[in-house]
Structures are given as C-alpha cells and as structure tokens.
User: What shape does this take?
Amino acid sequence: MAQTQSKSPSKSAGKGRGWHGDPDGHANAGRKGGAKVSQDRSHMAEIGRRGGAKVSQDRTHMAEIGRRGGEKVSMDRSHMANIGKKGGESR
Assistant: This one.
C-alpha cells in the first residue's frame, strides 16, 4: 500500500492509525462499527463486563486500585470520624 508524503516530516507521519492531525479520524480509528454499535447498550455492557473480569484477575493491579481509593477516602476527615464513631459504638 502506498503512503502519502507529507510536506513537514514528523513523528506522526508513517504507518499506523495514530494521530494524523484529524481529530475526528483519530477518535474513530479504534471504533469498530461506529456509532451504531456504541448505541447498543447491552453490547457495550458486555464489553465492560469482559474488561472488568480480565482486570480483576490481576491481583497486584486490583490492590493498587484499592490502595488509591483508600487514600482518597481517608482524606475526608469527617467521613473517617464517622467510621470511628460507629466502630466505637458497636463494642
């Protein structure tokens, strides 16, 4: 397949489906089926389920996600105080 020559050489010129100065073309490059497929909610939900199942098999990745979430939650002092208060009342 022949490639077109650009007037200004850059890293983006060449093979692949990366950025070529066309925002719409770049956005659509990874979408198989386009808008019609993305409107099928059950299809998109299935894709999400598969991705979640695949990611959840990596225990170190999941631990890192939990760690980051815990750090965010622990920054809310009133929330942490409420948790501690409930824990103290349960004894």
Remarks:
- Residues 35-89 form one domain.
- Residues 47 and 53 are 10 Å apart (CA to CA).
- The helical segments are 23-28, 34-38, 41-56, 59-74, 77-89.
- The chain has five helices and no strands.
